[in-house]
Design brief:
The chain is mainly alpha-helical. The protein has ten helices and three strands; from the N terminus they run αααββααααααβα. The protein has a three-stranded antiparallel beta sheet with strand order 2-1-3. Helix 2 crosses helix 3, helix 3 crosses helix 9 and helix 4 crosses helix 8.
């Protein structure tokens, strides 16, 4: 890890420790919320913050899935653009498990809300409507290969089996994306995903929120 990445990691960990008691919507960096609000894409800052949280979980899902299957990438970001809410850049080395990475964005968003589709009929119906999604749907179907014989449902259930146990790692990476106003390099994501955040007990429980930040404790 380069010195610049070590400094970035230390800064993110310090901020996550400071904000450990607050929910995801409350820790969204103003840079990300303003990007989405100023373009007129959302009616208010609260809606923009909610969209940013969904984007962070989505991209964190891709990133953690890439780590889990042994792939590499250059960086992860929730920069808002004309065609995407974020991106994990330069993914390579996924082999025949690339479809797990492609499914991971949607799976992570469902893990965020605890809205997994448990009945196969419900999942099969949803998969029939899954299109676009920044190219994820197309790449998922193209990557299935002979192992699953085009069986989307079975490949999706396999992806869930790998990713559901990684929910806490996805949550940590998502929160890191939310508090940091720039992209996260691969090495920083790797460290955040691999290690638990500092204990809440290490944080001063009487520390007050910074002026101008609307922070809400997590329930």
């Amino acid at each position: 890890m380069r010195p610049s990445e070590q400094r970035q990691l230390a800064s993110i960990r310090a901020e996550l420790s400071r904000l450990i008691r607050y929910d995801d919507e409350s820790i969204v960096h103003d840079t990300w919320a303003r990007q989405r609000y100023d373009c007129g894409c959302f009616p208010g800052l609260m809606a923009a913050r909610g969209a940013t949280v969904a984007a962070a979980w989505h991209e964190a899902g891709h990133a953690v899935a890439a780590l889990d299957v042994g792939a590499r990438f250059s960086s992860a970001s929730i920069h808002h653009g004309c065609t995407a809410e974020g991106r994990v850049h330069g993914i390579s080395g996924a082999g025949d498990l690339a479809f797990v990475i492609d499914a991971a964005g949607q799976i992570a968003e469902r893990l965020m809300r605890w809205t997994m589709l448990e009945r196969d009929d419900d999942l099969r119906a949803w998969l029939a409507t899954w299109r676009g999604d920044g190219g994820d749907a197309r790449r998922f179907r193209r990557a299935l290969g002979p192992r699953f014989g085009g069986d989307e449902l079975r490949a999706w259930r396999y992806s869930e089996q790998r990713l559901v146990p990684l929910r806490l790692r996805i949550a940590r990476v998502a929160r890191a994306l939310l508090v940091h106003p720039r992209y996260l390099p691969y090495n920083v994501v790797l460290e955040i995903a691999a290690h638990d955040p500092p204990s809440a007990a290490a944080r001063d429980p009487h520390r007050r929120a910074s002026p101008g930040r609307r922070l809400r404790p997590r329930e």
